[in-house]
Amino acid sequence: MELFPPLVAQVMLVLVGVIGIVSLVVGAYNSSILISGRRQFLKIEVLEQDIAKLQQEIKELKSKQLPVEESQPVAIVPPEPDPLESTGAEEVWAEFLKDYNNLAASMDVPKALEACETFAGTHQLTFLICLDHAAQENGMISPKFGEVKQLAESNYWAWAVPETGGAFVVVPNPLHDYDEKLHTEGGMKETFASNYESGICKEIKVRLPAKFQNRKGTWKIIQPGVIKVK
Asked: What is the pLDDT of residue 164?
């Protein structure tokens, strides 16, 4: 005698099968959760170990650090002294300047060139011209000057101040009229402060000579001078 009708038995078998499958799925899901949790726990444990190791290395590095040395004061190089001021040379070139201004005031005499040549020979002057009046526009500190042999070709006369190691006082060549070209292209406006505005000036008086330095043939303005023209 059968306990259940065939239809009921089949339904029960299906239910048992479904329940078994569900149990397997639930079991697999629980297993995956456990495995995932275990892996996550292992990752956290490894991370904590790495952090502890890093902290230990930092402590070791700090213990090995050398004490910071105090910064040494930077030595300040004093500016190069003006050789004309450090030797009391003003009185020396003052006499030269007086003689020059007397000569410059007599350029209207017939033998002015001969008088200038005598003056230049007596004071052993060096004759200069401005080679590049736009040197400052090209990034240089001052105009570029060069030596010439002939007095008449020069625009500047340089007198070597005794016992100053290359220091010179510089004055304009009084033979030349002072005009716009000499003022702008001849380097005069960079070498001397003046009252010049325009036109041609026949007379020149130096109130303060320009100070130059000559080192191995390179001429440089140390201090501009002051002139008056009319």
From this structure: 78
